[in-house]
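User: Show me sequence and structure for the first protein, then do the same for the second.

Assistant: Starting with the first protein.
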Amino acid sequence: MNKSLGRNLPIILISIAVGLLVFGFLTVRVLGGGAIEAVGAGIAENEGSGWLMFVNALVGVSVALFVQQLKWGALRVTLTVIGALLFGFLITMAFNMDTAARFSRGEFRVSVQSEAEPVEQEGVDLEYGAARGGDLNEPGVRNPISEGRYTFAGRSGDVVHVLAYAANRRSEVNLEVALLDPAGVTLASSTSATEEQVAAFEDMRSTNDAVIGDFALPADGVYTIIAKAEPVSLSTTLSEASSATGVAFDAFLLGPLQRVNRWAVWIQDALTLILVGLAVAVVFRARQFSLGAEGQLYFGALVSGAICLAWGNIPPWLVVPIAILSAMTAGFLWGVIPGLLKAYLGANELVASLMLNVVAQRFYELVLTFQLKPADAGYIASDPFPAGNILFPLIPETQVSVAIFIVIAAVIATWLLISRTTLGYEIRMVGANRKFADYGGVDSRRVILLAMALSGLLAGLAGAHLAMGIHRTLILNISIGLAFEGVVVALLARNNPLVVPFTGLLYSYLRAGAQFMERDAGVSFEVVRIIQAVIILLITAEALATFFQNRRVQRGGAAAEPTPAPTVKKEQPANA
């Protein structure tokens, strides 16, 4: 035992150090805005700061467990996520490649300034002191223009200033201007303005405007001005795209930690994801690809919500536990159905669970629409739950509630079930090799049935959290594919219940960051969908690599076996 502790001591110390660093970072970011000296003021200002620090400590514990449980596997998972984020950065940068288009697109004006008297000439566009303009390269315009051509009449010796400038402060178009003589020969051109010129002419906006200053016209006649956007260099395009992507990813990666209410969005979503991830991990450990957690979640939400609404006059200390237990029971029973179909009828668990999800969702909508929705409601939702029949919030004005303790209990119970019970051993054995488990006396059909049912129990608990802790009412689409997000959580955790809290927190952080990236930087939520897809692909690729590596090892072992030498039967002489 001492030798085992000695071998594991470095990883334990690393785990503790990483957990403490995460705890400190989260606390400083949320309560201190990134400044350590401001943490004290943040604690004083926030009523629930004690619970906030407690939750941050739990996040640190989950990170420590992640490192301690997976060891080098934790590094692989971390690199997988980093690789997906880098890919997401490149995809976002590709979407932002048109950011520099603002330098070649927008409303502009052209004018000729001169102290000389204007020349009266019909058919010209400009006189001295007048301005004309338009929109360059605007998308969706009926007659878009890429350059503006304007004429004016001048005399020999007139000193003029040709101005091409953005029409308003919102337009950042970067202009260039050229002056052509009556024969069409370019006399002068400019791509910028000096600070002195910007200050001298009231209409000028910035040095990106263009000015041909103090030019003496060589002859009488009609001159032409050509104004257009200055070509945007590749380096500028890449720089602008990179800068815009940096702003987006700053909102993505740090947005959930800017304020307490944003931090709460992350944590409350993570609690549900952890429960769903546990549900998926249990059934995956039995190597059953059941995706029935979505329907079980809906039934858990429906049953718990109906009890909270119906028992408004009963003490909350009695209603809340009954509602939670009822939600777990509903999920358990709905999980029994695909378990029976798979174990005893040989039905495909993937098809059965997906079809049952549809049944559960439609039944939920039916009951909500025709039974629980108030008659005078303008939208489909139940009445709000009575104030006492919800999961009590730990931090004011958030949905971070006592569900934290329920999740802790669920994680510990699931780990004990998988690692320390006979049923857990049987689940792992069936998952490793069902034929061998049958040969060893394990009733694999019973194990498959119980694995799916217990998975449903945890998914039903997640539904109760959504209904009683997050929404505090029943609404349509209470979960939009949340159970499928749980699949990624379980896969990232290698179906290890002690690692699921970390992967649930990580995945929820990505989801919360996507909201703030979309809100603060205008980047679509779908970018995070791409990151999620890449994570799944990389995990799958790693699993395939392991599979083929094992196959090579097996083939190499078979090839290395010595072949027995052939035996030659010696014939006896005829006269023997």
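Switching to the second protein now.
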Amino acid sequence: MTTEKTNNANEKRVRKVIKRGDDTVVVTKGIDDLSEYISLIPNAKIKVIPLGGMCEIGKNTWIIEYEDDMIIIDGGLAFPSDEMPGVEIVLPDISYLVQNKNKIKGLVITHGHEDHIGGIVPMLKQFDIPIIYGPSLAIGLLEQKLKDAQLAEKTTLVKGRPRQTFRLGSLAFTYVRNTHSIADSFCLIIHTPAGKIVHSGDFKFDFTPVDGEFFDVYTLANAGEEGVLLLISDSTNVEREGYTPSERSVYGKLEEEFNKAPGRIVITTFASQVHRIRQILDICVKMDKKVSIFGRSMLLLATISREMGHMKFPDGLLINLEDVNKLPDEKIVILTTGSQGEPLSALTRMAFDEHKQITIQPKDTIIISATPIPGNERAVANVVNALSAKGAHVVYGRESGVHVSGHACKEEQRMLLNIVKPKYFLPAHGEYRMLVLHGNLGVECGVDPKNVFIMENGDVLELTDKSAKLNGQVPSGIIMVDSTRVGDVDEHIIEQRHKLASEGLLSIMTIVSGGKVLEEPVVEAKGLVLAQEDTTHGQFVTDAKKIVIKTISENTDINAEDLKEKVKDELKKLIHKELKREPLVQVVILESK
């Protein structure tokens, strides 16, 4: 990296030139003049392509494409729904990026939440990304992920600053500070040959932010006055009227609950909720309590945030897990993961007596400082029920006041639309009904109804300086991750798991030679209710054995695999007739020589 000063009196800024291979990335201070970088070109075609985050919550991944240049915005993951048993995380299908990996000039991160950075490591396992820009906290978190995955050499990480503009390929990006539920969160102004695109990132208008870092409305308003071609905006809370309360409003309610607690306090929130964790630690310092953090992700975030100055707490505040039981209960606060009822999280294990060090007691106060992500409601309710059954006082839910959203409600979304004044509007980051409602709000704010686009993952929006239209699709979908096996879990496996859970399993094994069954087939029924409890001599089992023997003897001229399928088909007919079920059927035929 080299630093070069400019003597141009009209610029008065420092440029850093980062050279990587044949690419040169110019980083500038200030956004006063981009004419030397990005010129407007009549009829230049810009493609905007979401690979995740449309008609869903999570997997936020975007592509901005111009000629032979592709820039990725965010690379997120989603958490599995109840309909995905055994799946740990869900990633977007990035086959389009793999096919065009030579066009990728870089990746730009809006903020450090997992649904925006959790898919970057899987990307780097499939293709190189020359350079990744991100807010300092997001880069700190990503840096640790890359070290853990031994991928640190696969890219160059650059920490971005508010109002910083940098060029990637034929496009330029300006970071604009916003307010969200994590520190260091940005909107983007994307400077293209067709005009400006504003990407809101996740946002709300918090006018009393915990860290004193205010939403940079001025820079967005300037962009709006100059002319914004397209606004891509967060739709998450469009169904809620009014404004999202300030994060600072949570402090008083948390302090109230801490004061009322007669014994230990166990509190859970999102691991990435820097401002919330900061307030919790401030209250603990004020009330002379000690804090033990359970969960590697939460401890890592607290450590990195402290190093970067996003939170401050004295040495000695944090104690190790083994020291929790050495202090009086009223002096202990356990800050833990598990706000979404995750099966392996510390809070869930405490609730179901599976935690080795902590047993929930009637005097404990449990504070769930989060709301369930759609799809997690049942899991969270199960944890609350289990904790309540142990006599603990559980504080949870929107009415409790111990949580506020990080996303804009309807009036804030209206405010952003009126500030940016886009010609075209693309609602994003929400389920389909949310996108439609947000689109209607855009029309209310003056966007021509023909200029509002409700898109799905994989749709291609093609922009010029004078037009916008949907023009085709690219491959999209989901990749399910089971433990470390990325992509090996497909819809067929999920269907099998559902059948095992709901219908059971019938397994049959036999030995044949020359088309004859040498030994009586062995039948095992798992999860099936038979007419008799004895699964070796019941009438159904007897009939199943007869069908196996008969089918094998009548089909001596087909190969082994076809024979297995023939036996399966005949057994399924018997099962449907006798049991009215559709279990998985497993047939093992061993050849004896």
